[in-house]
Amino acid sequence: MKTFAHAAFLASAGQVAEFPSEGPPEIAFLGRSNVGKSSAINALSGRRRLAFASKTPGRTQTVNFYDLGGSGRLVDLPGYGYARVPRSERAKWDRLVSSYLLERNTLAGVVVVMDARHPVTPQDERLFEWLRPLTVPRLALLTKADKLSRNERAQALAHAARRGVADVLLFSSVSREGVDAARERLAQWLLDARSDSRL
After folding, report:
1. What is each CA distance from 172 to 91, 98, 113, 153, 180, in whole angstroms?
2. Domain 2-30+40-195, CATH among 3.40.50.10420, 3.40.50.970, 3.40.630.190, 3.40.50.300
3. How far apart are CA 123 and CA 120, in angstroms?
């Protein structure tokens, strides 16, 4: 989709003061460490190395901004969960993420990335509860869906539904499943946000 055709790295921020100035609407990506956020962003943009995907949990320690040719931005937030980093560093990440989500006026939507093989962990549930007051739309991507059998896929979707995840897509950066559907959803969010005088 043309919305994502011109995706390019914009900025990397280790603290709030380094965030780029607010401009076009932004869609934030959240998820456990090593769950596939960077791979999802690469798949959506049609680029292999736009966002750096690592097998090392916690590699993304900054808020990374990607410009979509002026029509919007994708924002990769630091992962949460089992990353082997000092508690003080995790607290720093938490403050950075909280500041972004609560204070960024151009936030147009949130994508929560979860591993389809282990969907909706207690940490994910706490995240959804924390996001509940936000008025922006939310979408859950169950990544690595290509690794599941048909029955396991159905079980993953059912599990997410039981946990109250209303808007969810099976997604794979390998087989491309869910990529077009996610692009359409996010492009609509950006279009709606640009029509809103607040953005």
Report:
1. 31, 28, 11, 12, 11
2. 3.40.50.300
3. 8
Cβ–Cβ < 8 Å for 171, 142: yes
Rounded Cα distance, 86 and 114, in Å = 23
Domain boundaries, the chain: 2-30+40-195
Return per-residue pLDDT of the chain as tens, 199 residues.
Answer: 688 988 999 999 988 999 999 999 999 999 887 788 888 999 999 887 787 654 444 445 789 999 999 999 999 998 876 556 667 766 777 788 889 999 999 999 999 999 999 878 888 888 888 788 889 999 999 999 999 999 999 999 998 888 878 799 999 999 999 999 999 999 999 999 998 754 4
Measured in degrees and rounded to the nearest 5, phi and psi for residue 117 equal -80, -20
Measured distance CA(86)–CA(52) in Å, rounded: 22
| Alpha-carbon distances of 194 from 52, 92, 111, rounded to whole Å | 28, 31, 18
Phi, psi of 128 (to 5 degrees): -60, -40
